Amino acid sequence: MKKSQPEIGLFIPCYVDQFFPQVAIATLELLEKLGCKVSYPLGQTCCGQPLANSGYERDTEGSSRHFLELFKQFDYIVAPSGSCVLHVKEHFPKLSDMEHEQSRVNDRIYELTEFLTDVLKVDSLKGSFPKKVGFHSSCHGLRGLRLASSSEMNVTPFNKAKQLLQNLEGLEWVELSRVDECCGFGGTFSVTEEALSVQMGRDRLQDHQSHQVEIVTGGDMSCLMHLQGIADREGSSLKFMHVAEILNQAIS
Amino acid sequence: MSHPKAASQFLKDQANSLWHDETLWMVREKRDAISKTIPEWEELRNLASQIKDKVLSNLDVYLENFEANAQKNGIKVHWAKDAEEHNQIVLGILQEKNCQAIVKSKSILTEECHLNPYLEKNGVEVVDTDLGERIVQFLQQPPSHIVMPAIHLKKRDISALFHEKLQTEKGNEDPSYLTNAARLHLREKFLGSKVAITGVNFGVAETGEFVVCTNEGNADMGVHLADVHIACMGIEKIIPRRKDLGVFLRLLARSATGQPITNYNSHFRSPAKGKEIHLVLVDNGRSLQLAREKFRNSLKCIRCGACMNTCPIYRRSGGYSYGSTVPGPIGSILSPGLDMKKYSTLPFASTLCGSCSDVCPVKINIHEQLYEWRQEITKHHGEFGKGLSMKLASGIFKSPLAYKISGSTMRKAIKLLPKGLIYNPLNVWGKNRDLPEAPKESFQEWYKKNRG
């Protein structure tokens, strides 16, 4: 039927590679179950976001060049992180000798849920996940990639992750009081403004807890790592799963 | 004081910081609700942003038109290149009129120029007539918010303050009672002032008139009772035509407090018989900001304060944590333009969540400018520690091998070492947060085994 199947390059953020391999595995397996041809180019490093957000974008030429070299030949690049995708698209320094590669990569890179809804055109997925799920909207995915409508704007509401999750059998989507407030991770903000960062995280957790959420999910493990770090320290029973993990588990 | 330090102090009083967060969140919710009753809200934001684009691109021409038209109307126009000149011009007018006591309605510009202490030093009594401003003036504090200057105070604080200053009943916290006491107190001051100072919300180039928006009517009361009106206006407050005002007035109060419109939107065009209007046009760094391509958009600001109400940092750290006249996200992109060194921590007091940009009625890309200020600040003012560790990290990310080694070393280190002994950034991480459990292998290792 198809002339040739598109080649998908899996972009796994460094901290997911090192700390959350199960999220990367779930992303890979999920895409494979949906019939995609996926490969993971070896030799990936950090995309440079922590440096750039700390004010050192100019020092990320090397890592940006390396990234473009690794991914330039793929038809699509997919990552289980809105934040890192946004960084590639918006905060790679302009490389005059790689303009072509840069614009090609920018046109073809997707966060996982938007790849499923916008490219694979998945309306809903069949599967079961009988849990009360609270969704943490990562700010970079939300307001950077517009993976959902932000609560500030007067637009028709949408949420790409919700579209994928809400029809899973038994899954109860919990509406929070503050649907898209920041968790306070913010990369190096989490250590340079430690007190604020932790307070923001506690407040987010409180919102989930007061709505009897069982599992907090989201599209960025960085936010979830921060929230889980606080929840674990405080002995909370909340569990944390990346959207990819829920989808992969539910449809198996 | 750096922002992180000030913020952690504010957070020490947990109950108070929670109350502060919730109070401002309530204002944001009111803003959300009312903005959603306007179907063309997003279009209005676009229009406002485009009108301001036009103004900023032709500011010189508009300013000259504005000046000429204002003069035709009988307004005396003064130009001040900086705060000092502004203050001297105002004092000069007061001395000429032999005036030793003035009333002033809310003006962030005069705060920016530190007019009050300057006038007081020169023997002029200044009374701020906006209720919130009068409260913080009694306390000798600056405003903690540009629209709600005393938002950091509770009813009981005001009650105690008014008991001391206005001899109200001890312990009476009834807002109507307290407001009435302030009203009586201010009435005396209004009646006794020959000169009234106001800010300016909009200057209309085509007509030479200017518009002042207040909820309390205090600007009008002051101006109409005085012989001389001095209006202080930043040069970016221009709009081209009177009809553009409709766009901005629909956005301003809805964004600021969730009201449909400010109670008083007063147009001042020419002085009444026997009276005078002076207009002081102030640059004070605005031309410089206009010349900074990445930051010029910040001059679109109409001072609604919505970015403060929505900012998860501002709500939890309070206005004073910024140490600048304009606090919050917009302050964090304006202040470094005035003094980059002094305000170097402000652009970092953000998670770059972007809520400020989405809430802004004139669509200033605030969070993107915060990012850009970071790039500038590190060039001029690199803190040694951060600079060094970031350079190290850059070396690691460029080389896959170095990254792999450091990654697996880090995972092993985390397994072996007790919490809080890892290395500095992680050490701070671990004060109130656990680290993720280190997996036995990285994804890359798994992939090679299972798909290689």
UniProtKB/TrEMBL annotation, chain A:
It comes from the Bacteria. Signal peptide: none annotated. Pfam families: CCG (PF02754). InterPro entries: Cys_rich_dom. Residues 9-88, 133-228 form the Cysteine-rich domain. This is (Fe-S)-binding protein.
From TrEMBL, chain B:
It comes from Algoriphagus limi. Pfam families: Fer4_8, LUD_dom, LutB_C. It comes from the Bacteria. The keyword Iron-sulfur applies. The keyword Oxidoreductase does not apply. This is Lactate utilization protein. InterPro entries: 4Fe4S_Fe-S-bd, 4Fe4S_Fe_S_CS, FTHF_cligase-like_sf, Helical_ferredxn, LUD_dom, LutB/LldF, LutB_C, NagB/RpiA_transferase-like. Residues 292-312 form the 4Fe-4S ferredoxin-type domain. Keywords: 4Fe-4S, Electron transport, Iron, Iron-sulfur, Metal-binding, Repeat, Transport. PROSITE patterns: 4FE4S_FER_1, 4FE4S_FER_2.
